[in-house]
Structure formats: C-alpha cells, structure tokens
C-alpha cells in the first residue's frame, strides 16, 4: 500500500516537475553553458572559450561599476526596509482594535503590487529637477534644488528610495504574520514585571522574530540584486536614454546581449548574479539552522 501511494504521488507531481525543470532548471544550465562560449546571437557558430568571459569580467570597468551600484542599491534597500518594516508592523499589530488597521495595511501593501513602470514614472516626476515637487519643497524651505536624476550618486539614492517604497509593504505583511504568532503571555508577563512597550519590543519581539527577519532580509537582498525596471525608467540621461546614469547588473546583461551582441559575455554576468543569489540563500539556511540548534 505504501509503495502504491508513493508511485501515485510521484506520477501526480511528475508533470509539474517536468514543467518546472524545463522552465527553471534548463535555462540555468543553458546559461552556464553559454557563459563558456563566444556567441553573437546572429550566427550558429559558438566557439568554446572556457573561462575567458569571466576573466574579462574581472577587468571590465563597466561590469565592476554595475556590480558596485547593484550591491549598494541592494544593501541600501535592506538597511532601510527591515528596520522600518519591523517598526511599522509592531505599530499596526498593537493597534488591532483600531478601525483603521485595514486601511493602514492596504496603504502600505499597495506599492508592492503596483506595476513597476507606472510607479517609476510617478517617482521620476517627483525627482524631476525642474518641475518635481521634491525640489519645490526644498526651495520652499530655503534649500537649493538638486539634479536628482542626473547625478550618479543622487540617482542611486533615488533608486534606493523607490525600491524601499515598493519592498516595504511585503516586509510589513510578513512581519505582521510573525507578530500574530507570538504568544501574548510573554507580553503580559513583561507588563507585570514593569517592562515598557519599547522594552518588550526589543527584548521579546525582535529576538523571536529573527527567523522572519532572516527570510525577509534574503528576499529583499535577492530582489535588490535583480533591480531592473527602476533603474531603466528612473535613471535617464539628458537624451532620454534609459539606465545610463546608473548601471546595474541586469541592465548591463541586456545591453551586452541585445545591443553589443555578446550573449556569452552576458551569460557570464548572469552566472555571477546567480552565484550571488546562491550565496545569500546558503547564508540564510545556515543562519536558520544555527538558530534552530540554539
């Protein structure tokens, strides 16, 4: 009977596994293969060049610039999103009797489900050097206007703000689920011992929510390293060419593939990005395993 159940379960999930392997596993393997070849996407000839693409990557200033910008954006979004999401989730959770809780949750989560391109266009108007409301607000208080989208450093900051605004809702929802799973008896005991709200938050909520913090951190970092539409739409040069002020890894890959016709070289960039995601995922599993042993 157990053998029949095992066979039935295997046959039931086999179509899903086949589709998953074709859609997910096969493209990864094909990208790994292409990274070891030189291909201009137009010809059938794909000469094998080994690790030459990776060697060229290490000395390519454009790739290194894209890697640095992507890393700064990813960790910038992480350091803004995690603390802010944790505090907002705590405030919403402790106001469960308020009639506006649903409004708060909806308002925070909407940016996460809004399409990236319209959202980026709206923020591009906000950061506009001549007509944007942000510069209008600065001049009202006596500050000089900034060329937000034409300065390389300020452009990175703008992308971090936009990505944090979009990632915040998802992180808050995940933290809210974690808060609802925490035993109320701990907070009641802490209150009887004279602990204040902030003390209960730091001594009870933060330690117990560490697994969720690890999960949200890795998801946020992986999303940050895959930033694309925000840089493509938001950061534009004076001629309107997208993504020229801020080079990020995904944009650099697309440019090398379809503008420079260097598919093998772009595939090596994708492999590097894959390695970053795998390392971050392994770090997550290791930290969670150590947390479980503790």
From TrEMBL:
Keyword RNA-binding in annotation: no
Compartment(s): Cell membrane
PROSITE patterns: ABC_TM1
The ABC transmembrane type-1 domain, residue ranges: 67-284
Swiss-Prot/TrEMBL keywords: Cell membrane, Membrane, Transmembrane, Transmembrane helix, Transport
Organism field: Microvirga alba
Keyword Nucleus listed: no
A GO CC annotation given for this chain: plasma membrane
Transmembrane portions of the chain: 7-26, 66-91, 103-127, 147-177, 212-235, 263-283
An annotated GO BP: transmembrane transport
Topology in the lipid bilayer: Multi-pass membrane protein
Protein name: Sugar ABC transporter permease
High-level lineage: Bacteria, Pseudomonadati, Pseudomonadota, Alphaproteobacteria, Hyphomicrobiales
Protein family: Belongs to the binding-protein-dependent transport system permease family.
Main location: membrane
InterPro entries: ABC_transporter_permease (IPR051393), MetI-like (IPR000515), MetI-like_sf (IPR035906)
